[in-house]
Amino acid sequence: MAKKAEASSSADLLSTLGDFTSKENWDKFFSIRGSDDTFEWYAEWQFLKTPLISHLSSHTTTTTQTLDKSNSKSPPPSPSSLQILVPGCGNSKLSENVYDAGFQNITNIDFSKVVISDMLRRNIRSRPSMKWRVMDMTQMQFKDGIFDVVLDKGGLDALMEPELGPKLGTQYLAEVKRVLRTGGTFVCLTLAESHVLGLLFSKFRFGWKMNLHVVPSKPSNKPTFRTFMVIAEKDKLADSYQIKSSFEQASLDCDKNQSRGLFEALEAENKIRSECSPGSDILYSLKDLKLGAKGDLKKISLGRRFLLTLGEEGGSRFSYKAVILDAKKLADPFIYHCGVFIVPKVRAQEWLFSSEEGQWMVVESSKAARLIMVFLDARHTHASMDEIQKDLSPLVEDLAPGEHDDESKIPFMMASDGVKRRKVVHQVTSAMTGPITVEDVVYENVDGEDAGVTPSKELTFRRLTFERSVGLVQSEALVTREQTEKRKSNSAKSRKNGNQRSSDPKSILKVDHHYLASSYHTGIISGFMLAACNLESMASSGRTMKTVIIGLGAGLLPMFLRGCIPCLDIEVVELDPVIVTLARDYFTFTEDNQLKVHVVDGIKFIEDAATAASSSNETNIREKIDILIIDADSSDSSSGMTCPPEDFLEESFLLSVKKSLSSGGLFVINLVARSKAIRDMVVSKLKKVFVSLFYLQLEKDVNEVIFALSVDVPLKEENFPEAALQLQKLLKCTNPKRSQNISDAAKKIKCLN
């Protein structure tokens, strides 16, 4: 009779339920069956009891151990206190059986008023603690995190009608995750069809520990569909864990298609999870984040950082690579709760934006509690910034933290060079340096000290840049516009017509070599204060100081030095002949008896100088270098150190430098490194060779100038103002303000202990 009743139930189900997700159909179904005619989808209690009760019992044990570790004074939970939710309960006897096993704090919900009324009448006396509520399982009316267990028997399977897609299943699982407390479990009894597992596994991918068990069944002569128990435990962390299975495929006695589909889904999901292992710097999608891949995005998590892709197919015009960074500390007030920082393609490889340390520096300077750094690439080349911002705006709204005014807008910032207008003067590709550009630019804002340099309202600067070091200006010169004289026209036609017209005057741009556009050049010269006594002695005796500069650039520093310190005998060492040509043709660099260029390798030049200086010959001793300046850039902008190249910091080279310097000789390095760790490494290397070290940190600039003396000289910072004044008197600048600027910088030099 039992088998006959079961067959009859199946027939009733097929005849009354056209749609498993229809409330009206279920009301009709339960009305036909009546309150006493229970319906079990699958997993009869005699087979389900042992694995399910075992899990519920272990749940109370685990919770007790957690309380012990936290020294909580709350009493350990008992089976009767375990908060259990049974969604889509129907008229199954599952809740009644669990209640009778000692777990009596059970809440049952179903959207059918008919079945809830029937179940309430059936249990109100025998099971008075059992709760029954009419409620849609996809829109639960419970507070967050109030249940220890959500027990689902066929509910998810019923929602996952293939024709309807995953919408209802997605809504339901989101509610399950919401109402479970941390440490709680979702117990899902399912036939494990591939489309169901595909949704279930993905929605519990991050922050959930999952186990898969097969529910025992009656012995059968032929393979049948089996019921599986999926257990997902809510973890404190948002990590991705491998799904564990308590059985092997070979030992699983069930329908072959069911077995194959299950293990294919399990293998595919575990492969994805292995790629999402803790510590791996993977690209998350917005879908992953909504699944909880990196925790609750509505809250700021100090120091949280992860990569992601923005823009889904059909949801936006472009896709983007981005990184989200939550500020490391909330001590200072933030201007923005959330900001977007756009990095153009040409700057994406710079250390400041490509390295984690650099990105945190951008976060700090942005004054944003959360910064979304978006990297543009070739896909965005032909789009305007307005189009990019319009495309990004709806995407980043989902990433903003919740603790802010809903009306506040998310600001867009950009890594810009501040150029208002630019004109490319010349472009060339060097075999050594790569693509090189000479351009004239007008900046959006000009420093106050520069504003009055020329009568023109706008200052024009000529810049030399290398594509390999985008964002770093190699050289920058102020150019002024000069008018050529008017020429009278003497053409026969003019004389015949009785007219004598003047041709239009022409203007040309001329580099001003009396002006230092780069603040670090001012910093380099300010360090000459450390050799002011030698400079004064040479100038008064008519002798010259041998000065070597490694790295020509546009030749602006040596040209300025030649004009303002006549006692210097300057030699510039440049490896790339193309650079020398550009300096001559576009920056009016010229050589004479006081200024020469050697197109050779800088390291070899110094090594040869050190070898020559080691001789006791008096002539060679006079050829020792008095001032040596390293002003060369690195070919690897992603290393974190843009200047100088690492080879110039090797101990062997630094020893050659020391040997090549005269007694009291000055060694100067232009250091461009945003990383404190790299800066400390540079200083450590210098300290192995030089005793007397000094530094100047330039304001509003990443450049730092480091100075070293060849011998240990007892210089004290309190004497620097006097030495700075001594240097200022030696400078022959056409504009006294230039001398003053150098002197002021010299007073800021500090001893490097």
TrEMBL record:
Residues 63-83, 480-505 are annotated as: Disordered. Keywords: Methyltransferase, Multifunctional enzyme, Transferase. InterPro entries: Lys/N-term_MeTrsfase_sf, Methyltransf_11, SAM-dependent_MTases_sf. The keyword Signal does not apply. Pfam families: Methyltransf_11, Spermine_synth. GO terms for molecular function: S-adenosylmethionine-dependent methyltransferase activity. Residues 87-188 form the Methyltransferase type domain. The keyword Transferase applies. Residues 489-498 have a biased composition (Basic residues). GO terms for biological process: methylation. It comes from the Eukaryota. Belongs to the methyltransferase superfamily. This is Methyltransferase type 11 domain-containing protein. It comes from Papaver atlanticum.
